[in-house]
């Protein structure tokens, strides 16, 4: 079972967590194909046919991205809009390419987990904020949506001494790999 990891990060060279995840995933090319959208499409123009064939060639699909403005980076939104076409991802005439395919998210939140609670700073959980992805994959594309993996932290919050330690990052890598194994 091979997993396609679609990475949507606007500046992976400055990333801490997503870059570390990619380094670890690339150690096992028999299990994981890492596909960085920003590297593949620096002009933002998605090759829809190529992307659809790539998805079809894998058993599982994981979208890996940092939370930006409580959603995904623009290149991933473009990917979703252009690749998940009627007649391929949904619809009556052949729109079954994601039916039953295991799909999950791997997100980096950049802040404390306590901020993503109904009683926290933002008043919404990540599960609530990521509901549009679940709805798209589970109910529209009829994929086997497997929820999400989240890493909280790593961002330096202005006015606070806060960032993830090396130990926390390495635990996050281990936890992410365990999440992927359970797909």
From TrEMBL:
Residues 1-159 form the Flavodoxin-like fold domain. Keywords: Oxidoreductase. InterPro entries: Flavodoxin_fold, Flavoprotein-like_sf, KefG/KefF. SUPFAM superfamilies: Flavoproteins. Pfam families: Flavodoxin_2 (PF02525). The keyword DNA-binding does not apply. It comes from the Bacteria. This is NADPH-quinone reductase (Modulator of drug activity B). It comes from Paenibacillus barengoltzii J12.
């Amino acid at each position: 079972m091979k997993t396609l990891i679609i990475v949507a990060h606007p500046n992976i060279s400055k990333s801490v967590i997503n870059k570390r995840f990619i380094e670890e995933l690339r150690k096992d090319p028999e299990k994981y194909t890492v596909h960085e959208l920003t590297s593949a499409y620096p002009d933002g123009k998605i090759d829809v046919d190529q992307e659809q064939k790539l998805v079809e060639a894998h058993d599982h699909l994981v979208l890996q991205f940092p939370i930006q403005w409580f959603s995904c980076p623009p290149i991933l939104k473009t990917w979703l809009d252009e690749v998940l076409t009627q007649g391929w991802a949904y619809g009556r005439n052949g729109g079954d390419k994601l039916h039953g395919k295991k799909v999950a998210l791997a997100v980096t939140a950049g802040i404390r987990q306590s901020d993503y609670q109904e009683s926290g700073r933002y008043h919404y959980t990540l599960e609530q904020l990521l509901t549009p992805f679940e709805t798209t994959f589970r109910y529209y594309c009829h994929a086997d949506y497997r929820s999400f993996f989240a890493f909280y932290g790593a961002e330096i919050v202005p006015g606070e001494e806060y960032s993830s330690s090396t130990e926390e990052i390495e635990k996050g890598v281990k936890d992410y790999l365990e999440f992927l194994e359970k797909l």
